[in-house]
Every structure is written in structure tokens, then in C-alpha cells.
Amino acid sequence: MATQEERRRLTKQTIIKAAAKLFKKQGFEHTSIMQVVKEANVVKATFYKHFTTKVDLLLVIGRKDGTKDVAALMQKVEQGMSPLDALQAYYIVMVQWFEAHAFIAEDVILSAIRLHNPHSNFPEQVAHDFTKLMLSIAQERGEVSKSVSVSSQAIVVGGVVTLAIIDWSKGAKSITLEQSILECFETILYGLKPSQ
Fold it and tell me: In this structure, what DSSP letter does residue 122 have?
């Protein structure tokens, strides 16, 4: 017999699965909480036990647990990998997720922007913190200029990635999102190297 915690986890997964199905079929904006609870076969109060808003639900769907990726990349950086290469690898994993979930890519990005809180543990803040850490190490190693603060450099990197995802999600798909990000990184990350 399932414990109360297991039933709660299964119910949450049912709601997430139902919402993902509806978001894919009809879009985030055109899906109501009532439609989600009906699809999940739960009552509205159950929804609110797990999620405060529909946006919270979207962010759960849009999240990718990057903890393992970050830990593996950190270990590689400690072993001598360029932090710029690690940063690029991190964002490539992220954009591959967006390419696989194109139907909610724009909504995830816009929701993250609306809910941005620099003191949160939302994925966009984790990405920003990792970006700042890699750029800080790159500065220490002389791989990027020290004339621009790490915070400003991280804003540029995050902003470029965000805009590339939004452009791609709106149909600018003459190249893959991954290729677009690689070209952006070639321009900004390697353009940040100090002049010789």
C-alpha cells in the first residue's frame, strides 16, 4: 500500500503529465487550471496543494535538473577544462532541452522573466549563478577581460541565450537553436578574451 507521501508525489506527477499534454496540444496561454484538473482527474483544491499558479506548474515542466551536469562540469574545470568551454557545454544541454520541448519554450522563458528573483533557486537563477562562477574562473585564468564585471558579463551571456531561444521559438529556425547558441558564444564569449 502506498504511503501518503507516495500518493502525493504520484498525484503531483499526474497533474504535471496532464498539464504537459494540454500545453503541447493547445498552448500554455490557452490552457486553464480547470482543464488541467479535469485532464488529471483531480479537484481544483488538489491542484493548489501542489502549485500556487499555472506558471509555477509551467516552470516545473520547464525545469531540467542540471545538478549532475553542473557537478560534472565543475569537476572538469577543476581538472583544467576551460570554464568558457564548460559554460558553453552547460548552455548546449539547456538548449537541447528547449529544442525537445519547443511547444513550451517561449512560455518557459517569458514566465522565468516575469518571475525573476535574484534570490531564488529557479533554473534561470541557477544558470545565472553558474555563468557568473565560470566567468569568474575565466577571469582568474586570464581567459576573459577583467575590465568588465563578471555580473555584467553574465547578464550579456544570459540575455543573448534568452533572446536566441525566444527568436527560435517564434519561428526563426533557419538553423538549429544549438547552432544559434554556438554562434552567439563564438561572438560573445570568445570576444570577451582580453586583447593581446
Answer: S
Q: What is the grid cell recorded at 42?
A: 483531480
CATH class of the structural domain 63-192: mainly alpha
pLDDT tens by residue, 39-49: 999 999 999 99
Cell of 175: 538553423
CATH topology of domain 4-54: Arc Repressor Mutant, subunit A (1.10.10)
Residue 63 DSSP label = -
Q: Per-residue pLDDT tens for 137-193?
A: 999 999 888 998 999 999 899 888 888 888 888 876 678 888 888 888 888 877 666
What are the residue boundaries of the structural domains of the chain, listed by start?
4-54, 63-192
The position carrying cell 565543475 is 74
Q: Which residues of 131-170 are buried (b: 16+ CB within 10 A; e: fewer)?
A: bbbbbbbbbeeebbeeeeebeebbebbbebbbebbeebbe
